Amino acid sequence: MWQYSASMNSPKSLTPQQVSFFHEEGYLIVPDVFDPTDLEPLRNALHDEIERKLKTMRAEGKVANIHADLDFDHRLAAIHRDSSDNGVELIRHLEGLRGGGFHAPEMFDVIAHQKLISAVIALLGTKEVVASSVYRIRPKLPAIGRGNVPWHQDSGYFAEHCDKQMIITCWVPLVNATIENGCMQILPRTHQGKVAKHHTGGNAGFLVIKDEDLPDDPRKAISAICPRGGVIFMTNRTPHCSTPNYSDHIRWSADLRFQSAEVPSNVGMWPELIDENGKADDEFYEKINVACYPPEADFLVHSEKHPELVTDYAEYVKRRETYDRTTATFSAFRRWPESAATVK
Ligand SMILES: O=C(O)CCC(=O)C(=O)O
Prior knowledge:
The chain is about 25% helix and about 15% strand. It is of the alpha+beta class. Strand 1 (about 5) and strand 2 form a beta hairpin. It is globular and about 50 Å long. 2-oxoglutaric acid binds near residues 138, 140, 171 and 255. 2-oxoglutaric acid (AKG) binds near residues 140 and 253.
């Protein structure tokens, strides 16, 4: 439970009980990391982006009705109902796949939010924190299968050399996440073992662990219900999936990832080394493949030792955009032979 210190005016960390729960169970649901109003700027920024993109699509003749009367929790669903192609184009635009994606200041403000970082510091046990390259915005639309994520461990997407490392997923619902709207299912106490075999060809290109390869009976999964303002923390080896959205609104969420600065990353590998055509020399590509997820730019979000190196908004944008442009061949993380696992 968050408590605020009046003298420091900054959030206190998680309790030792919460930290122990996370390490024993492989997950932790904290219902009040944020005040729900802390997430309003991100919701508004996403809605503004939808508006901008829809106006462009209307000018291109793709969309007739931009559903300007509908709110953030319903609008994209109506667009998708009118045309699934337009809906998917918008979803892809927002999801944040491969570097570019959604990187408005409001996105960065949530990733670097002190309330979140304090919790991450407690769970990682270090104040040297890197925000992983991989974060995603997920609009799970009512009655559309695309957002249902099959069983997987996040490590299934990362390079094998990072299997034993700790990369914390922070799943941040932008609406109350319920069983009805397709919250996550998490298999507790199974995160100490190996990374299970993942297969390609899951829904919407997701990797998938077959039920028989899961480390425990999937019927033991917990439904990770979480109010807006809360955060679900998971390890990279915690098996999880999510179910269909049977509600009438979009289940918006953001999943963010953090790791200790000691875990391999591409922090300090400067995008200037990639030219405007996305090219760099071979030595650079060898080094860059050291990261747990090489194609996307990691950034230092908190450091007591080197506060001067903490990434500001301008650098975050530059790193994400530059990595997005690169034509590099990232090999290390393609661990499932037939996999094209560049996206989640
Ligand atoms: O948001 C979801 O439905 C699934 C999220 C997920 O699989 C993840 O954050 O790794």
